[in-house]
Structure formats: C-alpha cells, structure tokens
C-alpha cells in the first residue's frame, strides 16, 4: 500500500532542492504526487506541518540513545550532520519567510535532548522543576544559537569540531549549574 505521508515528504524535499519553502504550494505537492488536495489535508494541515513532520521523523533517530552526560555530544553531532546532509531542506526552509520554524524546531528538539541530560545530572540535588527547566533553557539557547549561526553561515565548519569546542566549554557545567541551584536552595531552607 502506498504511504502518502512519505510520498508528500519526498516531494517537498525534492522541491526544496531548487526553491525556498515559501515558494512551494500544496498544489505543487499534490500535482507531483498525483493525488487530490483532500489526500494531502487528510495527513497534514499545511506545508509547515509536513516540514515539521519531516524534521521530527528524520532527527528523532539522530538523537535517540544519546541523552545522557556521557553521550549528549554524539546526539548533537548526529543532529548537525543530519542538518548538513539535508542542506537544501534546511537552508531553503531557513531562507523562507517562516525562518522561525527552523528556530523553534531547533530549540524544541534540543530542549528535549538537553532536558534528559539535566534530569540525569539533577539526581541527588534539591532542585525544583522550575530550576531544572531554567538550566535546560540556558544550555538549549546556547546550543541552538550555535547551530542556527552555523546554518546561517552555510554549514561550512565540521560538526565534530563544533561539538568538541562546546564540549570543552561546558564540561562539568551541567552539574555545576545544578550544584549552584542546590546550594542556593539550601541557604534559604
């Protein structure tokens, strides 16, 4: 049986090889797939919905099993490699009117990834859910800003080099941030 979701995704990816996302229409997609508009809208609410689905489907594997203090670097490097391997998809989505889509996607995927690291590191500390989320946001904003800057500048630098530099900068900092939150909480007990 035909998997229309995958067909639609392949169609969008193919079109993003030559034009930005804001230049692609639902009509373009359904004509390419030789199906009705209703078939498209049965699966997706709009073009941005399908792009979100593509990104989630394809990056989920890159990050899974790499959400702890010992392997977060592998997950982040896998994500950067996926972004570079899908340069047309990423760049032409980023260059479209809906640039914030990539920004939001990057933030959300990295937040979920980093949150697992923070939760793991928070064991044994007296820190609130809010404090853990704050630490997660702090690192997420840094990691996503670096990735977005890398995209904006053409993804020239090797992902391994980026990850190595981040690793050097933040080594021990997840735990250190949580220790500081814990110490602050103990002062005002």
UniProtKB/TrEMBL annotation:
Domain of life (superkingdom) = Bacteria
Q: Which Pfam families match?
A: TetR_C_8 (PF14278)
Which Gene3D superfamilies does the annotation name?
A: Tetracycline Repressor, domain 2
Name the residues that span the membrane.
Answer: none
Q: Which InterPro entries match?
A: Homeodomain-like_sf, HTH-type_Tx_Regulator, TetR_C_Firmicutes
Q: Which residues form the Transcriptional regulator TetR C-terminal Firmicutes type domain?
A: 70-171
What's the protein called, per UniProt? Transcriptional regulator, TetR family
């Amino acid at each position: 049986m035909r998997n229309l979701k995958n067909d639609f995704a392949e169609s969008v990816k193919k079109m993003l090889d030559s034009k930005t996302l804001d230049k692609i229409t639902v009509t373009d997609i359904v004509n390419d797939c030789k199906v009705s508009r209703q078939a498209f809208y049965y699966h997706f609410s709009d073009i941005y919905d399908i792009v979100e689905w593509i990104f989630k489907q394809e990056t989920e594997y890159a990050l899974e099993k790499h959400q702890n203090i010992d392997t977060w670097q592998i997950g982040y490097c896998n994500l950067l490699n996926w972004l570079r391997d899908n340069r047309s998809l990423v760049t032409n989505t980023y260059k479209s009117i809906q640039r914030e889509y990539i920004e939001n996607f990057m933030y959300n995927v990295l937040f979920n990834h980093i949150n697992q690291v923070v939760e793991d590191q928070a064991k044994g500390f007296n820190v609130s859910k809010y404090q853990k989320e704050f630490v997660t946001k702090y690192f997420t904003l840094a990691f996503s800003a670096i990735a977005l800057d890398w995209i904006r500048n053409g993804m020239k630098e090797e992902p391994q080099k980026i990850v190595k530099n981040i690793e050097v900068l933040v080594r021990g900092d997840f735990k250190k941030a949580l220790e500081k939150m814990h110490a602050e909480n103990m002062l005002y007990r």
